[in-house]
Write a structure and sequence with these properties.
With about 350 residues, the chain is of the alpha/beta class. About 50% of the residues lie in helices and about 15% in strands. It has 17 helices and eight strands. The structure holds hypoxanthine and zinc ion.
Amino acid sequence: MTTLSCFIAGLPKAELHLHIEGTLEPAMMLRLAERNRQPQPFPDVETAEKAYRFNDLQSFLDIYYRSTEVLVTEEDFYDLTLAYLEKAASQNVRHAEIFFDPQAHTARGIAFATVLRGMEQACTQAHRQLGISTRLIMCILRHLSEQEGMAMLHEATRWKRWITGIGLDSSERGNPPSKFRNLYREARREGFLLTAHAGEEGTAASVKETLDLLHVDRIDHGVRCMDDPALVEELVRRAVPLTVCPLSNVKLRVFGNMQEHNLKAMLEKGLHVTLNSDDPAYFGGYVNENFTAAAEALELSFSDIVRLAENSFNASMLSIVQKKIHLLELADYARRPAPGN
Ligand code: HPA
Ligand code: ZN
């Protein structure tokens, strides 16, 4: 391990952009398919991994939704969530805000309660045994209608104790934020924290519209905001967090390679950037691999890395007191001499 990756490995951090369905590793996918007597999406792990070559967001989503079909029982959602939380805790993630896509499951006849109970049990157990805290963010699939999304929101209001936020994911192209204006208005009225994917395959205008029409608390990805200097200024002034996912962006060809990623430029502009793994089973790494890949390609400094971790706690849905506890631990870690020095 290099000095840098060693420092990243020990760094206390929060993960704020993580789709639980995107943590379905090929080996678990095959195991669950067998357990549930479902058709195998892929005959073996090697074939699954070979299929993970994407040209864009849609080619990824096609495989991602197909693979989720192996998730059927409460135990499946429990196993999936616990496996992610164990991995995250091993990477010194102290707090994780987890997206889930209920519409990908209810459309197949899986009850909303099955998904939520399985996830919640894993979160409770991981908190008790590993000390990692969690929040759940229910994502609305933007390729479906606002009316269908609204039905999910009504379901979520019955589970408010377990669901903290509402997000928006799936195909950005052709599904603008304006399509979900009423849903976000209602979600805000219900007291959910709000986030939405924007400026991933969409443009800076999509980020601007997400801010202006949906009144989100943060933006997921948002990397295309850099094409609009006035928007960058507004995001900095309003301290809107952006949950950036470098390995995802390279895999889905938002950037040609990691050297071309604009993360460093975003930090230099003063944007409130956090670093996350998005769909780690598909994009080649969990949060620490994202930190390391970005840090090496973009020559991030130790203080850039610490700032990303600081931002992750500040941008989270934790209370002020909880944030402070994590930030103190982080400051203590950052003060220690870098490993190898
Ligand atoms: N973008 C949009 N939708 C998604 C993603 C993503 O990166 N991952 C899972 N659903
Ligand atoms: Zn995402």
